[in-house]
Automatic annotation (TrEMBL):
It is found in: Membrane. Keywords: Membrane, Transmembrane, Transmembrane helix. GO terms for molecular function: transmembrane transporter activity. The chain crosses the membrane at residues 26-46, 58-77, 83-107, 119-138, 144-163. This is MFS domain-containing protein. It comes from Macrostomum lignano. One of its GO terms (cellular component) is membrane. SUPFAM superfamilies: MFS general substrate transporter. Residues 1-224 form the Major facilitator superfamily (MFS) profile domain. The keyword Ribonucleoprotein does not apply. It is a multi-pass membrane protein. The lineage of its organism: Eukaryota, Metazoa, Spiralia, Lophotrochozoa, Platyhelminthes. Residues 193-224 are annotated as: Disordered.
């Protein structure tokens, strides 16, 4: 096949001739679907894993999966390995976004939580705009893939500035670690906390219902 390459150097389908009547054009459709399937799986698994192992390790792992799979797919020359690698990119991408969103809102108080969630979406929109500019400059799919994946791996350097979510630590009963992080945040923000600050797991913060209180009263008043 002969392609008009006045606007680009090559895409994955044009480089491998997976177009028109080649009989393999259907593979291109499934390649797009593979990443979307990965997005679905990543969004589902990230919540389960981050609740069990913590926000920070899941976020680091997701970024590694996204970046390394993206780089590996840049050198792929067959649709089958490309399918698997783009699936993993979808898993990492979705998991990174979902976990980042959770971390962002868990660090913010109730008054500003809605605004924090919106600001996170700004980064997503800016990334799409940036992608257009990079694609305009790098008109070969392998170069574009490498550039975007390299940005994902570079962002891992910022992970050293990230601490575990205090809310998650409290939910797991790791109260001393949570208090240390809260006091550090208070110091940075110029807020003075009481010296006798007491943190309790969520199960101990649940207030009793009127029915349970009346039941307790009746138990205490009943003869033994």
């Amino acid at each position: 096949f002969v392609f008009d390459k006045s606007e680009f150097i090559d895409t994955f389908p044009s480089e491998l001739n997976y177009v028109c009547d080649s009989g393999k054009e259907v593979l291109v459709t499934t390649l797009v679907q593979s990443q979307l399937i990965g997005v679905l799986i990543g969004a589902w698994m990230s919540g389960i894993l981050s609740d069990r192992f913590g926000r920070k390790p899941v976020l680091i792992g997701s970024m590694l999966i996204m970046g390394l799979s993206g780089l590996a797919s840049s050198v792929s020359s067959d649709p089958y390995s490309f399918w698997v690698l783009r699936f993993l990119v979808g898993v990492g991408c979705s998991s990174t976004f979902t976990t980042s969103f959770v971390v962002g809102v868990e660090f913010i108080g109730p008054q500003a939580r809605i605004h924090a969630g919106i600001v996170i979406e700004y980064a997503y929109a800016f990334g799409l705009i940036l992608l257009v500019g990079i694609a305009y400059l790098l008109r070969y799919w392998r170069w574009l893939n490498i550039a975007v994946s390299a940005l994902s791996l570079f962002s891992i350097l910022l992970i050293w500035l990230l601490v575990e979510s205090p809310r998650w630590l409290i939910s797991r009963g790791r109260l001393a670690e949570a208090e240390a992080l809260i006091r550090k945040a208070a110091k940075v923000n110029g807020v003075e906390l009481p010296t006798d600050l007491e943190l309790r797991p969520p199960s101990e913060n649940v207030s009793k219902t009127p029915d349970s209180e009346s039941a307790d009263d009746s138990d205490r008043s009943s003869p033994t």
